[in-house]
Write a structure and sequence with these properties.
With 512 residues, the protein is of the alpha+beta class. Helix 3 links the parallel strand 11 and strand 12. The N and C termini lie far apart (70 Å).
Amino acid sequence: MNYEAIIGLEIHVQLKTKSKLFCGCDNRGEDAPPNTTVCPVCMGHPGVLPVLNKQALEFGIMAGLALNCTIPEKAKFDRKNYFYPDLPKGYQISQFDEPICVNGLVSIAVPTAQKDARKNADIRITRIHMEEDAAKSTHADGKTYVDFNRAGTPLIETVTEPDFRSPLEAKTFLQELRRIMRYLGVSDADMEKGHLRCDANISLRPTNQAPPLNVRGGTGGLYPKTEVKNINSFRAVERALQYEIQRQTKLWDDGKPPAITTTRGWDDVQGITVEQRSKEDSADYHYFPEPDLPPLLLREVVDQVRGRMPELPRARRLRLAEEYGFSPGETMILTEEKPLADYTEQVMTELQTWIRDLEEDGTEEEKWERNKKKLTKLFSGWFITKLFGLMEKHAVDIRTIKITPENFAELLTMIHANRVNSTAALQILEEMLLTGGDPSQIMEEKKLEQVSNNEEITPIVQDVIAANPQAIADFKAGKANALQFLVGQVMKSSRGKANPDLAQKLLKKLLR
């Protein structure tokens, strides 16, 4: 029997505010010594009163708008009661029935080569609610240590509908969510540091066969789910869900499908999930309205936040493709980080200026349209392949790169105008990366300008022909590689300065 995976996600994002959610403690406690960014409020001392961080509320609403959520006019906080060693108050201030965001939608493009897989998926967002984080437990040497620096850190929890049909779709959604949070500037969304944490819910059902509505432990006509916790990377999300599909498939094939909703932890080393407990439902937490915080009236805050919304990754990908002709794969790479997309657009704007000054005929728009396709391709090759490779080699980040967009655009126009060949341009680019120097100046200092006139190259070509009789014989015998060998010898003799296209034309002409 074939089965369909039904997957939903619950994602916590740590907000990048200066202070915690309900007190004035520094929100950068992960970088401080244990138990030093704490106060009576976040430690839950008797008699203290929480005060809501306005920036955290604005960040939560920004996230909701970015995920196309409806923002209700009113929301409230609730107490979620449970005991855990890293929860100092014995309850968590969260939101239950009146969250700040509801009914969102995110469209994702799924990178897949599988024939039957979806290329696009619409993922519904059930809700986004705010809550404070618990402390952090560390287990070592048979003991447990608790660091309360994280207690009270502001979180937003995004809950999706069970709209994913594969582990890859879940991974793709999480990567897009990270991009969105970073573009908004509300979170670093680093999974390895715990800024973005994901619990994945998964169940199976026979293909094209909906279960009866009264399945024990199931909801909304779905079979009982398994919640997978302790997932700390995008790859781990995919692996954990793949493992659960295999595990649950075997249970179904053995006639013993999951009968109750359970929680399992992901063991990344062994590549398996381990049963932890049966899953609690909302009644187990004994929610009640938080008596120390008034209801939230959101209309005015939404109006303020909406005007500060930046262009989001998907919109930017579509615009870059439309304006410059980048491919979908290129736009995905170029918009992965906002600083990367900003740098791209600055370079493309500078290229239009350089082309305007290089060419004489036509208006600025006509000059750009004549050269846009070639320059876009030139930029992609040199930026994504060449510059990225050098940045990795020298451990340089786009945020601290010494090459200005203007200088990078100038180098591209030098290549476009055949002032330097690719070998020399790569030397210039590396020098620019290390020193931040001007490409024209580097070219002159290192004598790398390309020779592109017949008078200078013809004697070199004649000497190469005279010195390589065997290659000449191979060429006349129809061996295509012989011509490339001769071009290489011309480049070597000219110390890389000869125009290779012109060298090839002259070789063909003289050999005829």
